[in-house]
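Appendix B: a complete holo record

For completeness, this appendix reproduces one full record from the ligand-bound portion of the collection. The bound molecule is 2-acetamido-2-deoxy-beta-D-glucopyranose. The inputs are the chain sequence and the ligand SMILES; the output is the full three-dimensional arrangement of the complex, encoded as structure tokens. No fields have been trimmed.
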Amino acid sequence: MSKPLKLLLFPCLLSLAILLRCSTADVGTAAYYGPPYLPTVCYGRDPGQFPGSGLFAAAGEGIWDNGASCGRQYLVRCLSSATPNACIKNRVIQVRVVDQGTMLNSMPSRNGTTMVLSNAAFQMIASEAAQVINIEFTQV
Ligand SMILES: *[C@@H]1O[C@H](CO)[C@@H](O)[C@H](O)[C@H]1NC(C)=O
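The structure of the chain with 2-acetamido-2-deoxy-beta-D-glucopyranose bound, as generated:
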């Protein structure tokens, strides 16, 4: 391969890689839920399943993937909400999926969302005055 072509190809591949990475971000909705968090569908009564940060989530039907979502990590950002000023802008959290959204021990703030965040996780990115928020999420 000639040198000029190589020099051209590199930035092209680089921008393609960046584009593909960006396109993995998805939009959806999130609600929140509180204790009792145990047992979970993914890991039962094991208290070691929760990240020390308390940032975890239950997967809604769209991302539950028949249980394959257990243990997946997502970066989550609040995009908007019907509740004015509910989003904490530019705050991104990382949550671990530990449960199934339709099988929680406590009632979520809204049914049928893409994911249900732990209280701690939700409060990191939004005000709990909002029962539901629109999110952007990316699997890590
Ligand atoms: C969610 O669904 C449950 C069971 O169908 C129902 O009892 C509850 O009121 C619903 N919660 C909300 C916030 O709509």
